[in-house]
Each structure stands twice: as structure tokens, then as C-alpha cells.
Design brief:
Strand content of chain A: 15-25%
CATH topology of the largest domain in chain A: Rossmann fold
Order of helices and strands of chain B: HHEHHHHEHEEEEHEHHHHH
Number of helices of chain A: 12
Largest sheet of chain B: 5 strands, parallel
Largest sheet of chain A: 7 strands, mixed
Oligomer: heterodimer
CATH class of the largest domain in chain B: Alpha Beta
CATH architecture of the largest domain in chain B: 3-Layer(aba) Sandwich
Largest interface: A-B, 44 and 42 residues
Helix content of chain A: 25-40%
CATH superfamily of the largest domain in chain A: Thiamin diphosphate (ThDP)-binding fold, Pyr/PP domains
Low-confidence stretches of chain B: 1-15
Structural class of chain A: alpha/beta
Mean pLDDT of chain A: 97
CATH architecture of the largest domain in chain A: 3-Layer(aba) Sandwich
Chain lengths: 335, 378
């Protein structure tokens, strides 16, 4: 059956709500409208306004109310509509969602999911395309998940709803319409497991979320030029799968991290640090990154210059010291 | 503080069915039963409210005496280095105790860092209740078993949690109420407003008790709001509101019991503003002489809630010298136990750093726990 990633998320919510009547879905426009991306389409009709409902337009209140409902027997799933509109909820997420289990010595867990449509590439105007995953991944106590395939969208969201800890579920907006042949329900690898999407022997591309299709396309293009690239899809940023990433890089000896978010102090920087800690003696070249520039996300007029694309990935792979010459970009005195 | 006469609360309404629109507004003057000396307040200052039972007032008296002694002991322990910090609620006993006595054991309390006295009244072990302020990484007590949320340090952020807990209970058909404690400074935070709005929209059984003690650390109320009163903030959200003399234990108990039972009966959320005063500095680390006059503090001390309740009960022959002595003796014994049990330095197991971040530690946390253990073994 051909399924879009958005429909797979919708099916995951529907199946989770059918199986467990403590699962609730709420947020802005998630009821009659079915969400601005239609991820909650039909849920209010099937489960009623008691279980899938619209709230006042206030993200801190939405997340804060979900905390209370999770404290008292429910499994809330809340939608933040857009990445940048989740910022009003940040204090709730950082100070309460992430810390409740710890500050109660395990007595109060918060089984809740915060769904965040994120990243760009859909021509959104300002404040609609932020890659905000680093804020959450940097906050201990949260799990951070970002599916790149249709099957993962379904399976990881089911796992997120069933998880005893709070999960920030990052949905790459430009992948909502990605299609695949998948028979639902489907169960893929669990949280904390990265997956090798394409095997290769010359270099490893580590990617997550919206960058995974870019990395795969780059690997195809590289193959046509006789270079074999392996692509690792992280799937969950927290917990992080060091083993799979390190095993791939030890095998290939070269690594490029591909991420749409700004690079500085981002998840991509963390990945590079972890790879060099674990794989230094297997590396033939410094680990490089292809990321968004360190600029506020540029709306559609300029976003094509910002988004990491296939050409930029291939150019970066070319700089992995194949002929033992140092990377001129980072030589002392090169700028 | 000025209020407009046309906003006056109707004097006789049923507890469970608040009147429409203008009925949401608080009374023109704070509800009170007692004058500043514990005699009867003039006129109909207590409005539609009934005097609480003598039995309830006696329980309140004992708890307030104990609460104040505990508070003084905690302040002393801080000066001795046994607590990292202690935000005193001396002078606010009527609110601290009134909030707890208005609730059933099955109801939920959402306290702030200033409400340790309320935790004691709730029956939480004092050493558990002081765990956070000893500098530990957790709240000390079991929130699920005690139906008491961890003391909240970020202001008003626990208010939406109270809405969620109350709404969840109501969804299951339970008659649980959640009462959330907030200070005057907290009413400026967005979460206070979002919580009022959500509670009203979802008709959640929540009582918001704002203990307006005049200062947010050093900043006076005049810099928090230009509203006629903090209780007036309810009407914009469709929340029925009330103002109370926060140093009048009769009024606090009467209004809070009414608010809790109204919410329990399906009347929706209620906002209560208690006019009170923080007699002590913000914490032991504060110097209140920099922002308020000694005369102001002394004036409020003369409106002492315990003295007022004691005078009231004595005047009716409902409290004897022996009763007073017994309450003080019980409080003294309680304080002695707290002092003895906190005589040692708080300690912690470093392995606990990693134990409760997630239900199951991530591979990275297991790895880091191992590194720390190796470091400590050297």
C-alpha cells in the first residue's frame, strides 16, 4: 500500500488511541480541521472531542496541561503546529517535562509526546521553518526522535506514545508528503537504534530527519562517479546510537555529517565530537559537516542557498583528503 | 486600593452556581470576619460566607501555631548551615493552613517554594518536606502518595499542571479538586494567565490561591499590576474571583472551603486573592531593609493571624490557656524533632545522579555513571 509519511503518523495516532483510551491528542487546530498538516485528520470524528480536542492558542498552557494530565493517568500527545511556535512552551519543556521524573526521584514519570513539525524546504514564511532539535536534544530527560521514512514515522510514533518518558517527536515538514510502499501497522527498530540505509565502503554520511533523503540522493550520485558512500539514519537523537555510527565510520574511515540545522553548537557538532572520540584511529580525514549556515532560517526567496543539497554534500565528500592533501578550507592562514 | 462599587459581589449566591458575568468579580473589599484585633469585623464584611465551624478553627489554630514554630526552626537551621535556603511564610499562616484544611486528602495541592508550611500541614514528614531546601536534587516526598506536587520554583509554571491534573480527574468522573498556590509576583507570569484561561475553557475544578504578600522579593505590587486587585484578573477569563483578608483565618477558611466545594460541585475554577504580608525577608539571603520600612512590617505584625484567631476563640470561650499551652508545647516538640533530625549534613549517593533521568538510563548515562564510579574509586 502506498502511504505518505503524514498518513502514517495519522494511522499511528489512530491505532494508539484505539488500543489505549488514556491516549489523548490535543493542541491548536487538531480537532475539526485535523491539524494544519492533517496529521490528526479524522481523530476527533472517531474518538470525540473528549480525546482529540482543540485548546486555547497558548503553547505553554498546552504543554503544561499535558504535564498535569500525564501526572494523572493519561498519555497526552500534543501538537505544536510549527517549530518556532513551540518556543513559548520551552520553559515547561525544559523545567518540568524534562525534569519531573528526576525531581521526584522517579515517583512521577511523564508519558507524553510533544509533536513538533520542523525544518524547512516547504516555502514557509518566517518563523515556520526552524530546525529546533538541538534545544531539546541538549536538555537531559527528553527523548528526541525524528523519522525519515514512512515506516519509521508509524513505528517510532507508536513507540513514543508507549514510552514511559516524555518524547519530543520532530516531524520534518518537507517529508510529510514522502511516499513509500508500507503495510501498516509496521514495527521498525526501537529507539536508540540508528539504521544503515545504504551500505558503502568509502565514506559514511550520518544524517537524520530531512537530511536523510539528501544523503541518500548524494550517495546515489556518488556511486555513479565510482565512490561508495554509506548512509546512516540516526532516527533518534536521544538516545543516541554510538555503536552503529562508530562501526560504520571505523569501516569506511571517512565521515560527513549532514544536517539542515545551523551547524554551530548543533546536533551535527555533537555527532562529530562523538565520532572523533571513538574513531580517531580509523579516520583518514577530519570529520566534516554539511549544515545550514549559521543564519536565521531564510524564507523561500533565499532558502535554496541555505538548505544542504546534494551538490554541497558531494563537494564536502570530495574534501575528505582522498589524495592525502589537507583540506584547504581549514588550513592555517587560508582566510 | 480602589475598587468600583458597581463591581460589588452579590451578597447571596449558591456556592455551586456562580451568577453570570458581573458575578465573576470579587467583592469590593476583601472578605473578613475579624477586625485587626480579632474582634468582629463591622457590618457585612464577610458577605455571604458562613463562619467556619469551631472544630475546624481549632484544628487551624493548632496547625498555625505548629506551622509558625516550624517556620522559625527552618529559618534558624538555615543560619546554622543545615538548609541551603529557606523562604519563610511567617505571617501567611492563614493562607498556608487554610489552603490545606480546605482540601480533602484525595485533592491535589500544587505548592511553591514558599509553601513548606503547607506541606507540613498536609502531613508530609518535615525532613522530606525540607529535602529540596537542604539542597537535594529532588523534592523529598512522593507526590503521588501525598497528592502534593513538588514545590515549584519557576513562578506559576505549576498552574497549568494543576489544570491538567484536575481536568484528568474530572474526565474520569472523580470529584477531585486541585488547589494551586501562587504569589503576587507569579500573577505577572504568562503561565498564570494561560492556566486561568485553560481552566475556564475546560471548566476544570481548580482553585487558584494568590497569596498577595506585597512583594516579589523586593518589587512592590504597584510594579506588578495596575489592576484594581489581583482577583480582578479572573473576570477576563471567565473565572469567578474573590478577595480575602489573608490574615483573617476565619475568612480564609470560609472562602477557600467555599471555592473548593464550588469547584468540586462543577462550578468551574475559582480565583482567590489573599491580602497578606511576608513578615520575614524573601529568604535568609535577602536584606528587606533595602526596599521596605520597618514601620510597615510592624503594622502588619499587629494584624497577626494567629493572635487574631486566638483572640476570637478565647472571646467565645472556645480556647483555654491550657489549649494554647498544649498547642505551643506540641509545636515546640515538633521543632525539637526537626532540629535533631537535621543535625547532620545532607548527603547523597552520586549514583543517584543518573538513576531517574529516564525510566531506564540511556547507554550514554550508563557509560557516564561508570566513568564517575571509576573516578571515585581512584
Amino acid at each position: 500500500m502506498t502511504v505518505t509519511l503524514g498518513k502514517a503518523l495519522n494511522a499511528a495516532l489512530r491505532d494508539a488511541m484505539r488500543e489505549d483510551d488514556t491516549v489523548l491528542m490535543f493542541g491548536e487546530d487538531v480537532g475539526a480541521l485535523g491539524g494544519v498538516f492533517r496529521v490528526t485528520d479524522g481523530l476527533a470524528a472517531e474518538f470525540g472531542d473528549d480525546r482529540c480536542f482543540d485548546t486555547p492558542l497558548a503553547e505553554s498552557g498546552i504543554v503544561g496541561m499535558a504535564v498535569g494530565m500525564a501526572m494523572n493517568g493519561f498519555r497526552p500527545v500534543v501538537e505544536m503546529q510549527f517549530d518556532a511556535f513551540a518556543y513559548p512552551a520551552f520553559e515547561q519543556i525544559a523545567s518540568h517535562v524534562a525534569k519531573m521524573r528526576n525531581r521526584t526521584r522517579g515517583a512521577v514519570g511523564l508519558p507524553m509526546v510533544i509533536r513538533v513539525p520542523y525544518a524547512g524546504g516547504i516555502g514557509g514564511v518566517e518563523h515556520h521553518s526552524d530546525s529546533s532539535e538541538a534545544y531539546y536534544a541538549h536538555t537531559p530527560g527528553l527523548k528526541v526522535v525524528t523519522p525519515a521514512t514512512v515506516a519509521d514515522a508509524y513505528s517510532l510514533l507508536r513507540e513514543a506514545v508507549a514510552d514511559p518518558d516524555p518524547v519530543v517527536f520532530m516531524e520534518a515538514k518537507k517529508l510529510y508528503w514522502a511516499k513509500d510502499e508500507v503495510a501498516l501497522p509496521v514495527t521498525t527498530e526501537p529507539f536508540g537504534t540508528a539504521v544503515v540505509r545504504r551500505e558503502g565502503s568509502d565514506a559514511t554520511l550520518v544524517a537524520y530527519g530531512p537530511a536523510v533523503p539528501v544523503a541518500l540522493e548524494a550517495a546515489s550520485a556518488a556511486a555513479a562517479e565510482g565512490r561508495s558512500l554509506e548512509v546512516v539514519d540516526l532516527r533518534t537523537l536521544v538516545p543516541f546510537d554510538d555503536e552503529t555510527v562508530a562501526a560504520s565510520v571505523r569501516k569506511t574511515g571517512r565521515c560527513v555529517v549532514v544536517a539542515e540545522a545551523a551547524g554551530f553548537a548543533g546536533v551535527s557538532a555533537e555527532i562529530v565530537a562523538r565520532v572523533q572520540e571513538r574513531c580517531f584511529h580509523s579516520l583518514w580525514a577530519p570529520v566534516l559537516r554539511v549544515t545550514g549556515w549559521d543564519v536565521p532560517y531564510p524564507p523561500p526567496v533565499l532558502e535554496k542557498y541555505h538548505l544542504p543539497g546534494v551538490d554541497r554534500v558531494l563537494d564536502t565528500v570530495d574534501r575528505l583528503q582522498w589524495d592525502d592533501a589537507p583540506d584547504p578550507r581549514f588550513l592555517a592562514g587560508s582566510r | 486600593m480602589t475598587t468600583q462599587a458597581e463591581h460589588r459581589m452579590p451578597t447571596a449566591t449558591s456556592a455551586s452556581a456562580p451568577p453570570a458575568d458581573a458575578g465573576l468579580l470579587p467583592s469590593a473589599e476583601p472578605v473578613r470576619f475579624l477586625d485587626d484585633d480579632g474582634g468582629p469585623a463591622p457590618g457585612d464584611a464577610h458577605g455571604r460566607y458562613e463562619r467556619p465551624s469551631t472544630e475546624l478553627l481549632r484544628r487551624a489554630y493548632d496547625a498555625m501555631v505548629l506551622g509558625r514554630r516550624f517556620d522559625a526552626q527552618a529559618t534558624a537551621l538555615t543560619k546554622q548551615g543545615r538548609l541551603a535556603v529557606y523562604p519563610s511564610s511567617r505571617g501567611q499562616e492563614a493562607g498556608e493552613i487554610g489552603a490545606v484544611l480546605a482540601l480533602r486528602e484525595t485533592d491535589w495541592l500544587f505548592p511553591t517554594y514558599r509553601d513548606t508550611m503547607a506541606l507540613i500541614a498536609r502531613g508530609i514528614d518535615p525532613v522530606e518536606a525540607l529535602t529540596l531546601l537542604r539542597g537535594s536534587w529532588h523534592c523529598g516526598y512522593d507526590p503521588m502518595a501525598t497528592r502534593t506536587a513538588p514545590q515549584c520554583t519557576p513562578l506559576a509554571t505549576h498552574a497549568p499542571h494543576a489544570v491538567g491534573v484536575a481536568h484528568a480527574a474530572r474526565r474520569r468522573g472523580e470529584d477531585t479538586v486541585a488547589l494551586v498556590l501562587i504569589g503576587d509576583g507569579g500573577t505577572s507570569e504568562g503561565d498564570f494567565h494561560e492556566a486561568l484561561n485553560f481552566a475556564a475553557v475546560f471548566h476544570a475544578p481548580v482553585v487558584f490561591l494568590v497569596q498577595n504578600n506585597g512583594y516579589a522579593i523586593s518589587v512592590p505590587l504597584s510594579r506588578q499590576t495596575a489592576a484594581p486587585s489581583l482577583a480582578h484578573k479572573g473576570v477576563g477569563y471567565g473565572v469567578r474571583s474573590e478577595r480575602v483578608d489573608g490574615n483573617d483565618p476565619l475568612a480564609m477558611l470560609a472562602v477557600l472551603t467555599d471555592a473548593v466545594e464550588s469547584a468540586r460541585a462543577g462550578g468551574g475554577p475559582v480565583l482567590v486573592e489573599a491580602h497578606t504580608y511576608r513578615v520575614e525577608p524573601h529568604t535568609n539571603a535577602d536584606d528587606d531593609a533595602r526596599y521596605r520600612d520597618h514601620d510597615e512590617v510592624e503594622a502588619w505584625k499587629r494584624r497577626d493571624p494567629i493572635a487574631r484567631l486566638e483572640a476570637h476563640l478565647r472571646s467565645r470561650g472556645e480556647l483555654s490557656d491550657d489549649d494554647v499551652a498544649a498547642a505551643r508545647s506540641a509545636a515546640e516538640e515538633f521543632a525539637t524533632q526537626v532540629r535533631e533530625r537535621l543535625s547532620e549534613e545532607a548527603t547523597g549517593d552520586p549514583a543517584d545522579l543518573f538513576a531517574h533521568v529516564y525510566a531506564e538510563p540511556t547507554p550514554q548515562l550508563r557509560e557516564q555513571a561508570g566513568w564517575l564510579a571509576e573516578e571515585l574509586a581512584r
